[in-house]
Design a protein that fits this description.
Mean pLDDT: 92
Radius of gyration: 17 Å
Strand content: 5-15%
Helix content: over 70%
Strand order of the largest sheet: 1-2
Distance between the termini: 28 Å
Number of strands: 2
Order of helices and strands: EEHHHHH
Number of helices: 5
Length: 114
């Protein structure tokens, strides 16, 4: 199953593997935690770097370095990272769940009885 993240094609099948799904869920928790910590940094640039790095690391851990590089390129900025994170957070509810529901539909009790 192909999906899109920041305009880049990604394999959504990966998110149906329980280990990858756990890594995805854990990465969202970690990103949210680091974003809170970043607000406490004395220098804004340090907070920006912290937020971008945690988002890029999450993408790399779930989809691989190639996808991370396609999304972020050589340089990135906080706005891009926040936009990508928003899409990343919504991958499962907006792209994976509808695909799973569509596939599961054929196994519904109603269809089995007919």
């Amino acid at each position: 199953m192909k999906g899109k993240l920041a305009g880049v094609a990604v394999e959504l099948d990966a998110l149906t593997d329980p280990d990858v799904a756990k890594a995805y869920e854990d990465s969202i928790d970690e990103i949210l935690e680091k974003m809170s910590e970043a607000k406490l940094k004395e220098r804004g640039s340090d907070g920006i770097r912290m937020q971008c790095e945690v988002v890029m690391t999450a993408i790399q851990n779930v989809f691989g370095e190639d996808i991370k590089n396609k999304i972020f390129g050589e340089h990135t900025n906080l706005i891009k990272c926040l936009d990508v994170f928003e899409e990343y957070m919504n991958l499962y509810p907006k792209q994976v769940v509808p695909l799973i529901e569509k596939k599961s539909e054929k196994y519904s009790r109603q269809r089995i009885e007919h």
